[in-house]
Structure formats: structure tokens, C-alpha cells
Amino acid sequence: MPTPTATPAETDVLIVGGGLGGVAAALAVCRAGRRAVLTEETDWIGGQLTAQAVPPDEHPWVEEFGVTASYRALRESIREHYRRWYPMRAEALDLPRLNPGAGRVSKLCHEPKVALAVLESMLAPHRTAGRLTVLTEHRPVGAQADGDTVRAVTFEDVRDGDRHTVSAPYVIDATETGELLELAGVEHVLGAEARSEYDEPHAPDVADPLNQQGITVCFAVSHHEGENHTIDRPADYDFWRSYRPDFWPGPLLGFLAPDPRSLAAVDRTFVPNPDVDPLAVNADQSADAGDKELWGFRRILARGLHRPGAFGSDITLVNWPLNDYWLKPLVGDGEQTAREALEGARELSRSVLYWLQTEAPRTDGGTGFPGLRIRPDITGTADGLAKSAYVREARRIKAVTTVTEHDVAIDLVGPYGGTKHRDSVGVGNYRIDLHPSTGGDNYIDIGSVPFEIPLGALVPRRVRNLLPAGKNIGTTHITNGCYRLHPVEWNIGEVAGALAAHCLTENVQPHQVQEEDKRFDEFARVLDRGGVQRHWPDVRGY
């Protein structure tokens, strides 16, 4: 995506971070007729859906309800892209709920570059109209704050080192790690809170800011029997080949791994290009997590949905227990540790690929799948690894409202329970799903209920004009596990953008909108007109 030659010095709303929350925020601001600047550190907008190469994790009712109208438009546009441009079988073309990858993790698995094309198309009219400036390959390096107001943010162009400062009456932090909170001095928390703080049953006894969920560097592969695509042996392969975590049933590089929900040791299966009609796949995580058969779990292109010979192989996305990295924290322990964590995660993923190609057990009794080919064309990178690590946990604002386990855990509130919020600005649903952490925790994966997103979780306690637009809202280490997925991040970003535009139009502050019933009702009508669902029908958690 080209960067404009002129960088605006000021705008109405500055959105830092071009992931799903950032894109949704930009759309909401521009739909309201306001100007926005959207920045992104990589050259792809879309965050976890594109640059991080993670097919969407969604709740089982996603086709009927439980997402915003604009998120539904994103999903349907992805499907239409495949129908229009791919050589699909007639039976697949006729499916109103087409799942292009026939993956089991989601009812809509697809290639990152298709999502990128759709997201760029959604932003295109606002860029042409001059309402939106998109600055890719720009990272925030400083912020100017005056009392309770963030005045401006300084960015560095990662290509040439040039720096630019942009000021705005409203600033939205849509970064993957909540880094603007640190730069702007916004009160925040990181890692795990102590159990004593909110009496959460699954919180640790002692707070630990460096206890964070592992990150994952994803990659895509296809399989071509009879060919040899084995990569060079990674430098740290011997370490990863012998690494066996204390809480793991065997070596990390192996198909035996804990079941996230029960922690029982379960063998995964791996059979490239199985002879199963992808039209028979029904993705429903409430009935079956779908994660035991690795090839089909996050498959993003199913050759069987297309005319014979169109594609020589399926393409699947590797985001498995094998390549979760948790040896060092990404956030909060300095830049050197962050660089080491990112390189460690990349080296682990390279080692997983090499192990799959050379040593992984086959069902025919042999070892290794040399026909596995990493796909740089899918990730848009030279080495085939995703542009960015999949970051599950960020810095989180100290918010007016903090969502805790007592609001959403099914064991605490019952299958039809959950906190009903006066200031609900959206809905979401996912199990409380925490991956193994840098603090040595195994999976924490427990049932939750369909939840409402309180506006108070998007409002910092002190700062008046900064809003979060992703995993940096007022959740805890525990509840982040169900608030961190694609449709919820989009919902949060859309609300943040709509709120900033609304506050500019009405000359009010976010705190007033959240606190005062009349002002909140006015904003709620804006959301309702925009297709933001704020309450659930009668559905059961899982």
C-alpha cells in the first residue's frame, strides 16, 4: 500500500495501529464525515487477519447474529471475492455460507491477502475523498501529553528513519501491544493480576506483569508429494528438538500435546491433502474445537472446492501448539527482550517446519514430509513467515470498568448468565482461552457466556481523549482470553472510532457519554443506526 508523499500534521482522529480494530475505527470516523489518519508498522493493514496470518476465530452464531453490520460486510465481501475470481465448483459457488478454506477453526477460513484486498477496498472511497490518510510502515516512537490530554504522536518511517508528528483532538491506540499507552503515560496494567485484586478463581496468587500469553509466528504450507522443499536446518533446531516443557506430555516438537480444555495428553493427526470432500466440513467450536486434525484445523484454501486441477494442493496455516513461543515476554521487559522473543518465536516456527519436513511421524510408518512447501506468496514475506507475530495479550488500560472472570465465566454465572451492562456498546462470545504463558502456566481454557462490551472498558480512568481499540481495553489477564478475537476487536475499534467522532460533533468527552444516561442514549442510537448489536438474544454459553 503506497504511503502519501505528504504526511498531515493534524487531523480529527489519529488512529495508531492498522489492525482490525484500527481499520474499523477509521471506517467509523470517516462514515461520520470526520478526517482520520491511520498508521501501521507493517505494509499490510488488517493485523491478526492479514499480517499475522490468523484465520478468524468466531462464535458459533456468527452467521445469524452477534457481530456488527460492518464486520458482516467484511465477511461477505471475502466470500464474494472467492466467488468472483476463483475457479470454484458449482456446488461451492452456490453455498451462501461458503468457507473457502473449509477449515475447522472458523466458518470462514481464507487467505490473508484476500482479507487485505477487501479491507483496502472498504477504505478506498474514504481515501479518495480525502477523509482518510493511511501511513503504512510507520511506527510510533513518542507522544506528547499535556495533563489529561494526549496532544500528538511522533512516528518513524521504518524505511528511511524519517520522523513525523501528527496532532489530533482524539487519539486511538489500536496497536497490537498497547504501546501508545506506554508512550503517552496512560495508566495501564500488564500481564497477570493477583487473585486478591478481583477474586478471579483462575488468577495467580501473586501479580506478575511479565506473565503473558505466548506469541506465535504463523506460516502457510502446501504439500506436493514426490517433491523436496526441505529448508536449511535452523540454527537453534537442536534446542527446539529436545525442548520439553515441564507441563507438556512430551517434546514440544511432536504431535502429542495437552487438550486446552482438559489438559489431557492428546495425539494430533497430520495428513496433508486428505481425500475428504471439504463441503462436508462443518466448523462449530461449541461442538468440536476442531484442533486435533492439524491439516484441516486452519486450512485456508481447499483444493476440493475448486475445479479439478486448479490447485495442486490445499494450503493450511500453521498456528498450532507446536509453535507457540513463551520463553520470553514480548512486552514490558525492554526492547532487547522483545527482539529476542520475536526472533525466538521465528526460530521456533522455522524449526517446526524443518521437523515436519524431516522427522514428523507419518501414518504409513515413515518420517518426514519433504513435500511441504512454505508459501511466501501467502504471507507476503521473503521467508514465508508471517509479517508480524500473533500477539494474544497487550498492555490494558486502567479503565472505568474492568471486565473480570465474575462477569463472563460460565462456572460462576451459569450458562445463561453474564453481566448486563447499562452502557453496552457491543457483544462477543468465545471461551476464556489463554495459551501457555511466559510465567510457566499451561492452557487456561474455560467456558464463558455470550457477553456485552461495556463502554466503561474503553474509557481510561484519567486521560480524556485517548481510546483503546483492541486487546488494550479494560479486561484482566483472564478475561482477555475471550475478548481478544477478531469480531470483538473489530467491534471495539468501530465503537472507539464512532465515539471519537460523536464527541467531536457533540462537543462532549467520552467520560460524559459513559457516565450520563442521556448522553449515552444519544450515542447508543448512533451505534444502533450503524448496525452495532449491543445485546444478545437468549443463547447458551459453552
Automatic annotation (TrEMBL):
Designated name of the protein: FAD-dependent oxidoreductase
Residue ranges of coiled coil: none
Listed GO biological process terms: NAD+ biosynthetic process
Organism per entry: Prauserella cavernicola
Superkingdom per UniProt: Bacteria
InterPro entries in the record: FAD/NAD-bd_sf (IPR036188), NadB (IPR005288)
PANTHER family linked to this entry: L-ASPARTATE OXIDASE (PTHR42716), SLL0471 PROTEIN (PTHR42716:SF1)
GO molecular function, a single term: L-aspartate oxidase activity
Short name of any one Pfam family annotated for the protein: FAD_oxidored
